[in-house]
Amino acid sequence: IIAPGYVVLIALLLLVSALPFGDGLAGLKRAAVGWALVGGVYLLMWLVYPKGIGYGDVRLSGLIGLGLGHLGLGAAIVGLYAGFLTGAVGGILLSALKVVDRKRFAFGPFMVLGAVIAVLAGPQILGALGY
Predict the structure, then answer these.
(1) What CA–CA distance (Å, rounded) separates 83 from 96?
(2) Which of 5, 38, 108, 117 can bridge 82 by disulfide, Cβ–Cβ 3.0-4.6 Å?
(3) What pLDDT band is residue 21 in, cutting at 50, 70 and 90?
C-alpha cells in the first residue's frame, strides 16, 4: 500500500504545482525537504537500531514527509514531533492496559495521527511556541 501511495502522492503534488493557484516548484522543493527531513530521521533511527523501528515505518515516513513538507517545514516538524509524542503516550497507555507488549506495538497509526495533528493544528502549535 505504501509504494502505490508514493505514486499517487507524487502525481498529486505535480498536479497541484502545475495548477494556476499552485506554487509551482516552491511547493515541490518544500515537499522534497520534508521527505528528506522526516524520512531521514526515521531512516537514521532504523540504521542505528533496526529492532527499535520497522522498515515499514521508514517507508511511511517518506509519504508523511512529502505531504507535510508541501505544507511547509513547520508542518513537517510538528508532524514528526507529534507522531513521537502520541506514540510515546499511546504506547504507555496500551502497555499499562496490557493491550500490547511493552516492547512491540505498531507505530504507524501514531505517525499518521501526528501528521493529522500537524495539518489541523500545526499553525496554532507553531504560533504558541513563538514560530
Answers:
(1) 19
(2) 117
(3) confident
